[in-house]
Amino acid sequence: MLPITQMRVDLRSDTVTQPTAAMREAMANAPVGDDVLGDDPTVAELESTVAELTGKAAALFVPSGTMGNQIALACHADRGSALIAEEEAHLLYYEVGASALLAGLVSWTLASDRGFPEPDAIRRRVLREDLHRPGTAVIALENSHNRKGGTVMSDDELAAYAALRNELGIPFHLDGARAWNAAVALQVPIAHLLRGFDSASLCLSKGLGSPVGSVLVGPAEFIARARRWRKRLGGGMRQAGILAACGLISVRDMVDRLAEDHARAARLAQEIRAIGPYCPDAPETNIVLVHTIGPAAEVVERLATHDVHCFPVAERTIRLVTHYGISDDAVDATVAAFTRAA
Predict the structure, then answer these.
(1) How far apart are CA 321 and CA 150, in angstroms?
(2) What are the pLDDT digits (tens) for 150-177?
């Protein structure tokens, strides 16, 4: 008989992480100013650090990845123009119609197997503005791709998108909520992933463990417009250095350890697959999609009775997300809970 789970295991998302002791200390000691007035030194340090790491001219600290994405779309595109995105992209699927409401964009979606539409499919969907049609003003991609199970753009795909961007002359935006996971999976610097994108929104509050915040990066003139949009949306924060201090720890100390999350996700998938009635996809990063024979919601309820918590993301699919709060013991407890739930 397997031991009953003796710990709470929270696999709902990597957003459930708690600030580290170093982050809490940095928050207490961070030098701060008024960021809306442009004189918070810790925010300035975070923005310059991320700009340098990503190879972009400038950066803007924003409260969330959703705000970063939507500011980028508003800066790239005029109202009434068109956006192209993959059909299950976070910025369409989970951002409450913001691109239509805030930026006034028409959205054209493309299907894909792994979250990354073929360049030819994008090329065919591009519209040039005329009397009858909205012109395509921005193309948005996501890396890693959340709803496809944390999939990562290959180096060939990155190169193909960069070439397409140059061919079309249309801005490409990257939803990089988990771009650092993708960089670690490919064993490349984050700047390598962004070289073909005009802008990117990068989360600090997922696998990197910060309690709040994302950073939007791009050209200096683009970030100047983005700062106005941040203010317009109520995202101007005052002594935000308290939060930016955590972000500095995230980008300096928490990136390399993402490989541990990926390794635990791989082990989780392998051991759940061996149980029998479940069919997990092989994870590329820290997200495991587990396909069930019966309703996924029922399996989630049974797992919760063993204090293992996760979400159904489709009728017969469960999502498990590893993070620095998930230890090897937590993986063992999860496998035991799946065995009992079977």
Answers:
(1) 9
(2) 999 999 999 999 999 999 999 999 999 9
